Amino acid sequence: MTPKDLLANYVDPAMVLLNSLTGIRSGDAALVLVMAIAGQESDWLARRQNGGPARSFWQFEKAGGVAQLFDEVPKQLQAVCDFLEIPYNQTDVFESMAWNDALAASMCRLLLWQDPAPLPAVGDVQGGWDYYQRNWRPGAPRPDAWPGYYATAVGLIEATSKAFS
Questions:
Q1: Contact, 96 vs 50, CB < 8 A?
Q2: For 40-73, what is each residue's pLDDT tens digit?
Q3: Which residues span the domain enclosing 42?
């Protein structure tokens, strides 16, 4: 999956869906993080973690991010699951997110949304890294990879914004 295809075909529609179901908006700052995190976690390629338990391009773990969303934003997550006709339980959501990119992208945005800190401004590479670290708590962080993924995400979002203005 190319980052451009992921954004156009799955992330953008998922953000529209999430907004219509929950009122959670996703401006450029949110979109940059959603895309950069998918790059950082899976290089926009792996829906299932190689040799590990994580699922989706955002590499959610059942006992980590999935459980946290069930605890922190159950109403919003259930609205997405109900719309997508995914049974609202951790086992089904965890398995479904590997193949349902609308669910996975919505879950990424929800995990960012539940953080009380404001999203970092577009272009704040370090702020984006800090936000990612705080919310994903990666077991093997790769700080040297982040700036490249972040720059790709910013470029995609800026190109998309200009295309519609």
A1: no
A2: 999 999 999 988 899 999 999 999 999 999 999 9
A3: 3-163
